[in-house]
Fold these 2 entries.
Entry 1:
Amino acid sequence: LSGLDPAQPYFQDTPIEVRLDKSDAEFVDVIHTDSAPTIPYLGFGMSTAIGHLDFYPNGGQQMPGCGKNPVSQIVDLDGIWEGTRDFVACNHLRSYKYYSDSIIYPDGFLGYSCASYDVFDTDTCFPCPQEGCPNMGHFADKFKGKIKTDFLKLYLNTGEAKDFALWRYKVTVTLSGKSKVKGYANIALYGSSGNTRQHQIVKGTLRPDNTYTSFIDAEVNIGTVTKVKFLWNNNQLNPTFPKLGAATITVESGENG
């Protein structure tokens, strides 16, 4: 059974007889997309972990792309009817959109086992453990025989619009140069299966010999890394024309480390 943002009003914290529960089937996976409290946020979805696998994309409360202004959302690419529904219950309806996208991307939507969404952005939950990470959506049941705990809370990020699947990489950059500069550094990844756009690794004071780490949720599974493009930019006009480079860049795939 796959629960697509099971309802919160009248169901949260009720006995298992009246709501979805992992005792309802041999395998129950749940996607939580609108689990903010009903009052004052009008969250329609349940926040409690109730399945064998509980996925909380983007933290499970506010989905990217749902904060668009009402007019652009109603006059949506999918038509006025779809856009109007999205305006009223965008976060809630993301669950079925992620599910349908997961059918097209069997290797996408990897959920990382984590204590919370805040911890998800640290090294604690990266990369996937030896047994791998479950896929949110249609292929979640591939993980059926590997569940060792009562409840498994899983976190991941998605895109703002279709296609929603993203692939997570950890990028570590050690800078080289002679003097510190204010600005930002970007990285683009090139691989055997595709290339990413530029992703910002660090913003602020860039110091030579310092190491900076960032997670990239890439819009493509790049496969084997073939090339990394490093670009930096300084915020203000500098008459000394400072030079900055990357001494080393390490790329780690979340899927296989």
Entry 2:
Amino acid sequence: AINISQPSFSGTDVFGYTSFLAYSTIPNITFYYEFRLKFQLANHHSALQDNLIFFTGQKGQGLNGDDFLELGLRNGKVVYSYNLGSGIATIISKPLDLTLNIHVIHLGRYLRKGWLKVDDQKNKTVTSPGRLVGLNVFSQFYLGGYREYTPELLPKGSGFKNGFQGCIFGIQVRTSMNQEFKSPGSPEGHPNSGRSVGQCKDSPCNLIKCRNGGKCIERGSSVYCDCLTGWKGAFCTETVSVCEPEHDPPHLCKQGSTCVPLPNGYTCHCPLGRTGTYCEQG
């Protein structure tokens, strides 16, 4: 069990899955909202990719004019987009100062007009095209990534290709200027579901111990032991038999014969018609 107060996201894994948290749909977001959050990048390289920070949408996809709200990183800049149904409005920040350890984002929208403030950069504004003024979203609020696992099914609004890599601190939202900021979710701060989310600065590797020289490898909240030659198993506690294919060096029994381990070494049981130490003779 990992107590998560500051979620850590691992981006998109080798199978195409993103780590994410999914919160209940944010109510009363139609005409006004403000978000604020802090984040810490896993590394400088992660700032240069297309990384989704959060997303919510009408049908969940951001396709074909669907209403959506989206925040992400591209080429070292923060990208904030929304569509009220009559065209996409986008604000792109100046490049992030990568010498800063933690970045701060404050963004909002009232009717068609949106604004974005990143770190100590100047406030930027945009007005969405068309005449529609309301944001209608019904999907859950996705933080750090998205539930779908093929790139074609990631939200299309701004074309982010990966989940976020790093930590997100204290995301909060309000849907009226007279309200206090609150964490998303129902009850407050509680996600409905998630995948491969860890606790920032607290590796799950601290909770397990690989034996016999094995090394713990972390992937989000997933961990495994990378074992030294001759060892296997979840914690590298099982020896690799001389007859197993991963043994180094491999046994020499020819194809069709059976390798049988002995207290010292092994022997080869030959099929009908074969003979020799390794069943190599007809």
